[in-house]
Specification:
Blueprint lengths: L12 H12 L7 H9 L18 H10 L4 E10 L8 H8 L13 H4 L6 E10 L3 E7 L4 E7 L2 E6 L4 E6 L5 E2 L2 E2 L10 H11 L4 E11 L2 E10 L6 E9 L5 E8 L7 E9 L17 E4 H11 L23 E4 L6 E5 L16 H10 E6 L2 E7 L4 E5 L3 E5 L3 H11 L1
Parallel strand pairs: 6-14
Antiparallel strand pairs: 1-2, 1-13, 2-3, 3-4, 4-5, 5-6, 7-8, 9-10, 10-11, 11-12, 12-13, 15-16, 16-20, 17-18, 18-19, 19-20
Length: 416
């Protein structure tokens, strides 16, 4: 196979569909941005300092190099940026997606379920470190504060220096505490490697994978793996992964939309070191006076709040019922064009002024968020980002995927 010949990977379609179902469970019109974040989970483009002359390699060999990489120790700085074409929601995105209510109801600002999802919008600088599967640290650097999430053995700590609040959990040996993940929320990758793994798992016969030259990232020589949909109708134009030529570790991840323009997701190392990080990187003791929230208390608070942040919107309380594997959710199509169909409890659509569910000002806000569409299915509203689009019909059915508005309407018509 020539260096730039394409290669198809098999068996990933099912994983892609499952990921979209998981993301789709959180749909509500005003939080489409949050869904996009959960689906893709995650920086200004990092300038290349030249194209190094490296030995030729095929796409299959490069994929195998990524899979075979046994690098477990590294530290560095990652720049990460997400541009969905909508205003940054900051912490609200995490509240909407995870169903949390934020510190207004007493939740800790250090809770990873809320804080880490802020990576779903805007530009952020992260410091990362890893020493095997049991020791990781991610720190989000802010103007006047720092947020850190530290995993060391069965202990997980998170700390927000801006509020002097800490969060603590003890894992049960499977990476979970009381049935909930105590690490960064699923769907919120924090490194180029995690992002690349998500895309490669989803790759199948509908995917073209080629080697697209070389680059230099964070001072290291890298190959560029280019991943593109073979199907039309996807909002994803291409994904490029810069892979370290020596270690096989992905150093940079760039997702471009099919509509053109700047990257939707761009994440890459600006500095990276594959030496063993200092042991102190993974130790944490709450500072004097810090308010510490235990994971059990945070879990109990979320149960009390029910739909959490979604509850402020009429009819949103039951939207989480159509979760992964639910009889109320099914997947239409495959590969890059997979669309999740969710039947909302009660079969109710958007609240309207006419129904008396929302005041005129709220109705105007809802109307401004989407485009009215109609077809065999009746009528509905499409809510759009540069990546994930969602159609909610008048009977309360939701169609969501990384596809165009036309594809959503077609799916709804076929299901009518």
């Amino acid at each position: 196979m020539a260096p730039n010949d394409s290669v198809e990977t098999n068996g990933g379609t099912r994983g892609a569909a499952a990921g979209r179902r998981k993301a789709a469970r959180y749909i509500v019109p005003v939080t489409v941005a949050g869904v996009a974040a959960a689906t893709i989970g995650l920086v200004p483009a990092l300038a290349s300092t030249g194209d190094p002359d490296l030995p030729k390699i095929t796409a299959q060999q490069l994929i195998e190099k990524i899979a075979a990489s046994d690098t477990q120790q590294l530290s560095g700085t990652v720049k990460i940026s997400t541009d969905l074409g909508i205003p940054s929601l900051g912490g609200l995105a995490g509240s909407f997606v995870q169903g949390d209510t934020g510190s207004a109801k007493g939740d800790s600002t250090a809770d990873p379920q809320t804080k880490m999802t802020e990576l779903a919008s805007g530009t952020h600088t992260l410091r990362v470190a890893a020493d095997g599967p049991d020791k990781q640290r991610v720190s989000i650097l802010e103007n006047a504060a720092e947020y850190s999430l530290i995993h060391n053995g069965d202990q997980v700590w998170a700390y927000d220096s801006g509020t002097n609040q800490a969060y603590h959990a003890t894992e049960d040996g499977s990476g979970k505490e009381s049935g909930h993940s105590t690490r960064a929320p699923e769907g919120v990758p924090t490194t180029p490697k995690a992002l690349a793994e998500q895309v490669l798992k989803a790759a199948g016969p509908t995917t073209s994978v080629t080697v697209d030259g070389t680059a230099q990232v964070a001072g290291r020589d890298a190959y560029k793996l280019l991943i593109k949909p073979r199907q039309s109708g996807s909002t994803i134009g291409s994904v490029t992964v810069a892979v370290d030529a020596k270690t096989g570790v992905p150093l940079k991840f760039t997702l471009l939309p099919s509509s053109g323009g700047k990257a939707v997701v761009d994440a890459g190392f600006t500095k990276v070191d594959f030496a063993k990080p200092a042991a102190s990187s993974f130790t944490f003791t709450p500072p004097k006076g810090a308010e510490v929230t235990e994971a059990d208390d945070a879990k109990a608070q979320r149960k009390t709040d029910g739909a959490g942040g979604l509850g402020m919107f009429p009819g949103a309380e039951g939207l989480g019922a159509g979760g992964q594997g639910s009889k109320d959710t099914k997947v239409i199509g495959e590969g890059w064009n997979a669309i999740a169909e969710i039947r909302t409890p009660g079969g109710t659509g958007l609240p309207t002024k006419a129904s008396g569910d929302v005041p005129a000002e709220a109705q105007q806000f809802l109307d401004s968020l989407g485009d009215k569409v109609s077809g065999k299915f009746g009528s509905g509203t499409v809510f759009k980002t540069r990546l994930v689009n969602a159609l909610m019909t008048e009977d309360g059915t939701v169609y969501v995927g990384a596809v165009t508005s036309d594809a959503l309407v077609k799916a709804a018509d076929n299901a009518a």
